[in-house]
Amino acid sequence: MNKKKIALIPGDGIGQEVIKQGVKVLKTVESLDENIEFEFTDFPWGCEYYLETGKMMAEDGLDQLSSFDSIYLGAVGYPTVPDHISLWDLLLKIRKGFDQYVNLRPVKLLHPGLTPLKGKSREDIDFLVIRENSEGEYSGKGDWLFEGNPEEVVLQTGVFSRKGTERIIRYAFEEARRQKKKLTSISKANALNYSMVFWDQVFNEVATDYPEVETESYLVDAASMFFVREPERFEIVVTSNLFGDILTDLGAAITGGLGVATGANINPEKKYPSMFEPVHGSAPDIAGKGLANPLAAIWSVAQMMDFFGEKQWSDKIEKTLEDVLVHESELTPDMGGKSTTDGLGDFFCLKLKELK
């Protein structure tokens, strides 16, 4: 029996609703496969918890989570809690504390009707962005000098260590070699004359260990253009924390929006649990109305199953995503349908059972 312990952090707003649907999918997998068992534990952390306690998560939160096989996160954010608090005191605290230095964001068109790009097919938009997830521009280092004075200066320091830069680039080369795909590095060395020059240098050094992997390198502004005009250029992409954050939202835009965008925060060595999440926000304006689209949260379940070594279930969940998108009336209103969050979750599980 392959038993996995999953920590649930539904978080805020629609996070509660979409995680519920992902759990339905996991329970459906469990019912269809006698070799798989899941154990779920809920954690009430998030902005409501912060408003009650002054903390986004328990003081010993990382210790509580450390024994789990994975973390399933819904969404974090609420209008009365500053974004830097909700981000740094929960999401980034987990990412950094558990050394989840690999962020995986698939940019894949699941249905041709979802892309706003003229003349682009599913074959044209199908690549993986590997984002450095532990340092870089999101290191949290810097200073605020002479606050309130005419000489006021703020310093935001990007930290690019040899260890952090090389390990994410090497991870990307390994993935490109495994999939027999081209690897593209995205940087900005012409303007960022320390961090991105160093990034490019390390990329070129590591490339010598992988002569069989075809490579390309783009400046981030050119890459942004090509994401829209020629997404077929990309197969595997590796880039820094900030560039990856921005570019993958652009990737979401060309594949149907954040309602179908997923992300995995991976500790490849499995020394710590990895975390899986839809990448949309908490959307408090529609919370509790049954309007939230759960497909991104469900796609993150596919990523979780892949991480668990259950590739067959990862593939089946992704195939079901494609099947469900054909049934427009069963989708949520953001995708032109008339269903509810619960209704779409139930329909997804029904279609998943049909694949068995």
On the 0 to 100 scale, the average pLDDT is: 96
Overall outline: globular
Q: Counting H and I runs of at least 4 residues, what is the number of helices? A: 11
> At the first level of CATH, what is the class of the largest domain?
Alpha Beta
What characterizes the major β-sheet?
A: 10 strands, mixed
Q: What distance lies between the first and last C-alpha atoms, to the nearest angstrom?
A: 19 Å
Oligomeric state as shown: single chain
Number of domains: 2
Global structural class:
alpha/beta
Would you identify the CATH H-level superfamily of the largest domain? Answer: Isopropylmalate Dehydrogenase
Note the run of SSEs as H and E.
EHEHHEHEEEEHEHEHEHEEHHH
Supply Rg: 20 Å
CATH topology of the largest domain: Isopropylmalate Dehydrogenase
Low-confidence stretches: none
Q: What helical percentage do the residues reach?
A: 25-40%
Spatial strand arrangement across the major sheet: 2-1-3-12-11-4-5-10-8-9
Quickly give the CATH architecture of the largest domain.
3-Layer(aba) Sandwich
Keywords: Manganese, Metal-binding, NAD, Oxidoreductase
Cofactor: Mn(2+); Mg(2+)
GO molecular function: D-malate dehydrogenase (decarboxylating) (NAD+) activity; magnesium ion binding; NAD binding
Protein name: D-malate dehydrogenase (decarboxylating)
3D architecture notes:
By secondary structure, the protein is of the alpha/beta class. The chain has two domains: 1-101 and 267-356, Isopropylmalate Dehydrogenase, CATH 3.40.718; 105-258, 3-Layer(aba) Sandwich (Isopropylmalate Dehydrogenase), CATH 3.40.718. Helices cover 40% and strands 22% of the residues. It contains eleven helices and twelve strands. The strands form two sheets. A ten-stranded mixed sheet has the order 2-1-3-12-11-4-5-10-8-9, sandwiched between helices. Helix 1 (15-32) links the parallel strand 1 (2-11) and strand 2 (36-42). Helix 1 packs across helix 9 (295-307), helix 1 (15-32) runs parallel beside helix 11 and helix 10 packs across helix 11 (341-355). It is globular. The mean pLDDT is 96.
